[in-house]
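Exam review. A common question shows you a sequence with its structure tokens and asks you to describe the fold in words. Practice with the pair below. Do the first one on your own.
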Amino acid sequence: MALPQYRKQLLSLKSPQLDDLFEAYALVAEALETLNMQVPEQPERLAEYRDICASIQTEVLSLLRECNGA
């Protein structure tokens, strides 16, 4: 699980926006796992999917801060 230090906070929030981000992250993480197993490797696509995962994590943290009034 990404962002384990925020797990309790994230589980306590009810947000359609967060739900959408979680779903998107799950899909991208699954695709990334599949890409990691492919031969030959596709380093450009791997980097792209890692960047997408990082962007989603950043969005989740931003929403978490908004919900906590920061």
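Now try the second one, then compare your answer with the model answer below.
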Amino acid sequence: MSELSTKPYLIRAIHEWCADSGYRAHIAVAVDETTRVPMEFVRNGEIVLNISADATNRLQIGNELIEFEARFNRIARQVSVPIANVSAIYAAETGHGMAFDVAKPLALAPPPAPAPGESGAGEPAAQADGREPASPASPVSLVSIPTAGSPSGAADAPAGRGAPDTDPPPGAPVGGRPRLTRVK
């Protein structure tokens, strides 16, 4: 007999804790071809869904799928998310919750590095579904964000770069709702 995953049980437990505490449970989901969500709300291959009782109808958190009906821009949609694609569940008001490892879909995974002695030159191989390989992701840069009580200035900036910018990056939320950030 194969061992059952604890992930659906943990998701149900955090969901119940959020409901008992009066919080709105949200899940972060890695979107792939097995995920049925409104694609216009997907950003960078992920979507965050409110699964609280006030936001869903007929919510079922099973061992393989989370299924429910929800309104997106006043249009009722059926949502189906494989448990394996849930990367986090948390309370929107506090950010407390739990994060999970999610395997990247094959089409989105970075290509393996060439083995020592291989040049890696030549034509890139086409993917199994006939599409061209995805271009490499743009580099990620880390920026320190001063907290409310800490002084900001040149002391926080890396050597040779000057003082950090005081303007938030474009597209950054301005106050309000907490946001889950995964750090690997």
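Model answer, second protein: The radius of gyration is 21 Å. Helices lie at 7-21. Full marks require stating both points clearly.
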